[in-house]
Amino acid sequence: MEFITSFFNQYHTQIIATIITLVVIFLIKLIVNRIIKKYSAHANIKEIRIKIIIKYFNVLINIIGFVLLITIWGVTPQWLFASFASFFAIVGVAFFAQWSILSNVTAGFIIYFTSPFKIGDTIKILDKDMGIEAKVEDIKAFYVILLSKEGLPIMIPNNLILQKAIYTISREE
Predict the structure, then answer these.
(1) Distance in angstroms (rounded) separating the CA atoms of residues 121 and 22
(2) pLDDT tens, 90-134?
(3) Residues 6 or more apart in contact with residue 74 via CB below 8 angstroms
(4) What's the angle, vertex CA 162, arms to CA 41 and CA 90, rounded to 5?
(5) Domain Mechanosensitive ion channel MscS, which positions (predicted)?
(6) Are strands 132-139 and 143-148 parallel, antiparallel or unpaired?
(7) Ordered DSSP codes for 124-167
(8) pTM of the model
(9) Using CA atoms, how far apart are residues 156 and 131, in angstroms rounded to an integer?
């Protein structure tokens, strides 16, 4: 019991600040999730897409919360910056080696938010060599799955989808 008392006496400011930060993070997540759901209902966005958008925002809020919490417990900004710089240098080298992964994820993020087409739409991808007309079956983080007129699945990387002109033939209501 004495250990707990001495621990609380020594770190009471950090403990209280941590509790307040956790409550604020929780409230921010609730508010952001409600705003996203309200906007999505108004914009007629499908449920699966709403869940993914909420997940992205929750990850961002958690990262910000983590940085706040470790700062509360005495991690200096210099150490934090040096650690993040080292981490991102390693990640940067890895992504430079596999730049297409990063471009596909970024393109997937853009497709989620701009909604040039939706699941169930029939689209035509205009290409100088060969155009593709197909129904959108699914939109993933790295690629879009289309279903051709012959019933064959076609997986096209998201970065290629953004580079081509797309014509929406029919929209699923």
Answers:
(1) 42
(2) 877 766 656 667 788 888 888 877 878 888 899 998 887 778 899
(3) 14
(4) 95
(5) 101-166
(6) antiparallel
(7) EEE-SS--EEEEEEEE-SSEEEEEETTS-EEEEEHHHHHHSEEE
(8) 0.53
(9) 13
